[in-house]
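User: Could you check the structure of this?
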Amino acid sequence: MNTCNMEVIIENVIRELRSKVFVMVEASGRHIHLSQSDLDTLFGNGYQLTPIKDLSQPGQFACDERVTITGPRGSLQNVVILGPTRPSSQVEISLTDGLVLGVKAPVRLSGDIDNTPGITITNPKNGKSITIDKGVIVAKRHIHITPEDAKRFGVSNGQSIKVKVFGDRPVIFEDLDVRVSEKFKTAVHIDYDEANACGYTKKSMGLILS
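Assistant: Sure, the predicted structure tokens are below.
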């Protein structure tokens, strides 16, 4: 066996071992999910979103459409819409974004929008705006995980765990919620405030500690 073939075999073994020990980590920037009703108001009756990039979670995608969000203190432009549409509109920002907007958003899991602040959403291309009375959150760090991986790592749905993220400045994140479903692809999700804290890169991996 030549040296080149041996190097390939070693790389494959290392890759397989990494997949059994570590989990993928993804950093999520500010984005918005719209209800069909709110989408119609902003873009026109019966409007359909334009997918431009599939996300890691099956069936989720980033769209070509962008909006501006405005709070009491300021605005953030070019906010990406994620599809498909949802029953209720939801805006996910970081704590730093909240300072810019003047919005004190609570840390919540996606979908938990009761007793959350609202915000104004504008389509910059036609000037149409809506103001939602709730729906602005800071996404709580969490892990999407398949039932098979949950069993392998010894975690269960709803459990709170610690994960060490190996960026340029490794950090142990506590109170990370486990969400188990056969519809998921296993990945840790953190926001950009957290990503900056640990020196995240797209090659960063996570180690489940408990």
